[in-house]
Amino acid sequence: MINYISYRILQLIPLLIAISIIVFVIIQLPPGDFLTNYIAQLKNAGNDVSESMILNLKMQYGLDKSMYMQYIIWIKNILLHGDFGRSFQYNQPVADVIGPKLTLTLVISVISLIFVWAVAIPIGIYSATHQYSPLDYVFTFIGFIGLAMPGFLIALILIYFVFTQTGVAITGLFSPEFADAPWSMAKVMNMLPRLVIPVIVIGMSGTASLIRVTRGMLLDELSKQYVITARAKGVAENKLLFKYPVRMAINPLISTIGWTLPALISGEAIVAIVLNLQTTGPMLLKALMTQDMYLCGSFLLILSVMTVLGTLLSDILLALVDPRIRFGGVAE
Amino acid sequence: MKSRSKLVSLLLASSLTLGIALAGCENSGGTTPPAAQEAKKDPPKEEAKPAGGGGQAAPAATTPAQITEFKQSPFFNGKNVPTVKDRLPSEYKITNEIPANQMKYEIGTYGGNLRTVTSVVDWDADVFVMNNEPLLNTPGILGDEITGNVLKDYAVSDDQKTFTFHMRKGLKWSDGQPVTTEDVRFTVEDVLNNTELTPIYPVWLRGGGVAEGAPMKLEVVDEYTFKLSFDRPYGGILIRFAIQGWRGYTELIKPAHYLKQFHKKYTPLEKLEPLIKDAGFQPGEWVNLFNDKDITNWELTTKKAIGFPVLYPWIMTKSTENMTTYERNPYYFKVDPAGNQLPYIDTIQSSLVQDIEMVGLKTIAGEVDFSRESAALIKMPLYKENEKNGYKALLASMHVTPTDIFLNQTFDDPNWQKVVQDVRFRKALSLALNRKEIIDTVYYGFAKPGNIEDPTFDLAQANQLLDDMGMKKGPNGKRQTPDGKNFTIPFEVGAQAPDIVPLTQLIVEMWKQLGLDVTMKTIDQKLWNTKRAGNQLQATMIWTHTPLWYMGDWGLDLWGNDWNTWKTSGGKNGKEPPDNVKKLYNLIDQASAAKPDEAKKLIEQVKQEMKDNVYYFIHISDVKQPLIVNAKLHNIPSDAAFAIAANFSGEQFFFGK
């Protein structure tokens, strides 16, 4: 097992190097760079941008160096100093830009995840055990709507509905008096009720798909022979259900950790834009659009590392949880 | 021939007026020429000139001593600051931001917090315009008269080569340090003339505002007086100091006492190294450090502006994830005619949202007290519908043309050039623009046909012109070039403003009526910028600053990119333009070097050239722009004013009861 894990970790190194290069190159592929963008913005506003200013900015941002040098400096600083470089837009170190947004993103993501699991798994189990019952149809119907309707659309409809009915514009997680305040209990209490909408909207499609997956998996398991045998031997129905088939049915939760982990910190970009959430999703989108290369490069790199680590983690966990995989591995 | 004789007479007329104006020699608000000449010989009298009162109902401006008692905002009560009299310069400025015919000034009351919204990180155009302070001032940004602002006043020599400026005695930076000619000397000698900090000397500070001119020379007369001299007449420098390009006082006055600690000349490099390292630059890069610490007016809304000494009405005190807070500057130099130190409003809070649509939502929910930049005409019905939420949606004039149409006459395709460089072709296209339809469909009637070019709509005449050119219809029913080659007008537009795409669609249909093959494509704005710079845009749309005569924005790089490159590079790159274009360039250059009253006449000639040659299509003008203001906000100019001028006069706003 230890051999297996260390081998897998060694494998990650070339993979991450390749990812970092690809990320860096792709960001720079579109025409121009951050400065051309910035200068165009100034010109449209009626400013005479002097050539001196352009030169100075180039030097300040290190854009006068070749792409290859830029990459080397970037990677060197990450490895040696843990310094991800500076964000052009924010004029701050990348870590300072991402850091504060990460807390909020994690809070929303974790709550959404718990919401998804707490809602979807019981419903999935119910739907499977009561297949073709009226409630199963109801859940299936809701599930399909959740799957088919994009989150941002639901968010827009909610905003419209709340605004026309109450005159309150949902423009963020805090009421104005708290927007600027440091974190405190009062601020958290202020945020919680406003968190409901984003959590539901973000969790909607996840819930819907997890209901379908759990239901499908469980139906598969329920018709297997071991279930029939156990039932024939008189194992209590609840014990039978939760001890074996349900454990099998929620396997996908573990095998998808590879995607769940980066999803936790990446934030739902479009929903966050619609709901004006200060999470990392819109930040990444804007960084990509303005070619704020160290910000998006570093963030994408972090996401890739999370994905790769998450996949590793899910492999290990699956082996721990599922004896078949564990024994299968040993037999080999 | 007809047009030529007209031109000759125009030239004659303008040269005559030029002579008269030269005899006047002084460029001032309201003084008669002889008096002005006298003033030049007798410096003390100059000070009685545009001390800041301008056209305002404030004759007191000329004799500051009339205001004996100053009042301050309760904001400062209990705060450890000197008395208001000590904070104000002894030569304070009586505010005159908006001409009297555009607004009736009300004496305001102190207090309140003004909320703005932006969707761009570290940039809020509404706050920038409200806070920015130019060296000189032109009320209403009209360019009609130029008065003092940060600088008290100015005098121009007969030959328009030497300019004497007086500073305000007792003016202080926001940290309480005095503002003197030492700050000017530092900016000119240690920043502008330092080839490390300024590798390329700005063209606009060269004689005549042209690349061939020598850099300006500075002579410090005393603590509050300095002279700038140029090697050729440059009356246009005044309007550049006042408004053009939204320049601020930072062009000439930087806080020397603060910046010296980052300048190699005053602080040894060894001492700078730790700072350089902290700022994240490589060893020895003191230039980067200095530029990072030197906050120009364009950077006044960025986080790093906190703590930088400024002269603005509000100073940034806090900037978090989603909100930036500005508080009133205790040392601000403007007062109202009753002696109240401006601004009236104590604080500004600028929230950052993720998307421009969110600005709209916040607006209609009444969570915004002032919004100009993000307000769009197409949303006007929505704004009006929700006015009950405590704001007013006003319409004011727009300082740019809504959107002009450009055909790049130097796009690298001989067939294209041959057709587009023919003035008959451009006239035909102009005749095919149904301006009334454009105004009604895209601008809800809140615009007028452009008056620079002929606004006639006459399809028959347009077709006739194209027939005369020999553009016959080919087998596909579309007009071909006179040589019988296929011809297409391929629009490529970026959606920089909400009207650009619908307007292009409309114009494509109008030009198709002539039997032309016209296509359109919306491209990414960044790609658009790159293509624009590389002479790769064939036909496109964007706004220009044509309504503000002093901006000198004639879209030159869009309708003749190679020619413009030739001009800006002094003939080194690009292609030499034909004579008529050279003549236009010449007029534009002359206008930018001339002092305002002459410049305006030259601009009329430029407009005439535009009319005769239709270099690009300035089809619509006088469009209205929504201005969202809190219903309680006072001192908002009438709808005749530019919206951005109202924005510019933010220190005069106050919340009524």
UniProtKB/TrEMBL annotation, chain A:
Presence of the UniProt keyword rRNA-binding in the record: no
Highest taxon above the source species: Bacteria
Lipid bilayer topology: Multi-pass membrane protein
Keywords in alphabetical order: Cell membrane, Membrane, Transmembrane, Transmembrane helix, Transport
Protein name: ABC transporter permease
Domain ABC transmembrane type-1: 102-318
Pfam families: BPD_transp_1, BPD_transp_1_N
Transmembrane regions listed in the UniProt entry: 12-29, 102-125, 137-163, 195-214, 253-277, 297-321
Statement: the UniProt record of this protein carries the keyword Lipid metabolism: no
SUPFAM superfamilies, A to Z: MetI-like
Cellular location(s): Cell membrane
Family: Belongs to the binding-protein-dependent transport system permease family.
